[in-house]
Amino acid sequence: MERDSVPHTLLVATLVCIVCSVLVAGAAVGLRPRQQSNKRLDQKKNVLLASGILSEGQRVSDDEIEQRFTTSIEKILINLETGNPAASEAVDPETYDQRAASKDPARSVPIPPAQDLAGIKQREKYGFVYKVRHPNGQLDRIVLPINGKGLWSTLYGFLALDADGTTVRAITFYEHRETPGLGAEIENPKWRAIWPGKQIFDESGEIKLEVIKGVVSPDSPRVKFEVDGISGATITSKGVTNLIRYWLGPDAFGPYLQKLFGQSLGEGANDG
């Protein structure tokens, strides 16, 4: 076969494609464990940020993140339907992958469209909660994993509640594919700094917290329930409102919160 012939050119191109495909596939498989490990580490870092154990911009090593998480965070797996700990059920908290479970029909439940505020279609049967305590053992805050649809992607993050069960202590997002400079502002520390002190539930236990369009007026009668919207990212802002209302509602962490804080959220904590 002549080197400058069409068949020779096609053969060389095909061989190059095959070799490149094998190299790319091999790299992807080889790097997957490391990528998964980095994702788990990033999740732990965001739990620590939401818990107040790490501060914004603080630089710590991977080993220190692991050490602080292990010594400072009480990680509990609960049955989302009942709100009870899953310790006595047929699931191992040490190996349980919450996100993988949400995609497995055998380990998740479908969400009726009318109830699917977060736009996730199905929800895992079990979920983690993270308790943070004062040195004297009293509950300081709890951190809950949250996720739901934004404009272009599913938003994954954590919401921290005060020991009163109704006051926001922090919010953080660790994974999304929203538009840089617009929806991606959910990661901006300045926007996240607006959240602490906002109220989630009214005195009857109804969820009132929302991200509004525009800037919250200090004269608004709902000021304690409202968060400034992200300019140019109305759908992402609405997505944050909806995912919070879903995950703190009766179809997700609601039963657990009722058991932990009592029938009327915000009237005082009954730590269990």
Write up this protein.
There is one protein chain. The protein has helices spanning 6-51, 62-72, 98-102, 189-192, 234-247, 254-261, and strands spanning 73-79, 108-110, 122-124, 126-133, 139-149, 154-162, 168-175, 210-211, 226-227. The strands form three sheets. It has a five-stranded antiparallel β-sheet with strand order 1-4-5-6-7. A two-stranded antiparallel sheet has the order 2-3. A two-stranded parallel ribbon has the order 8-9. It has a domain at 73-261. The chain is globular, with a radius of gyration of 22 Å. The chain is an alpha+beta fold and 272 residues long.
Spatial sequence of strands, sheet with the most strands: 1-4-5-6-7
Total beta strand runs:
9
Helix tally equals 6
Overall pLDDT metric: 88
Low-pLDDT stretches are: 266-272
Strand portion:
15-25%
Summing up helix and strand content along with how strands pair, one would put the structural category as alpha+beta
Short account of what is shown:
This protein has helices spanning 6-51, 62-72, 98-102, 189-192, 234-247, 254-261, and strands spanning 73-79, 108-110, 122-124, 126-133, 139-149, 154-162, 168-175, 210-211, 226-227.
Defining traits:
9 strands; two-stranded antiparallel ribbon; alpha+beta; 272 residues; globular
Strand-helix topology:
Elements lengths: L5 H46 L10 H11 E7 L18 H5 L5 E3 L11 E3 L1 E8 L5 E11 L4 E9 L5 E8 L13 H4 L17 E2 L14 E2 L6 H14 L6 H8 L11
Parallel strand pairs: 8-9
Antiparallel strand pairs: 1-4, 2-3, 4-5, 5-6, 6-7
Helix pairs in contact: 1-2
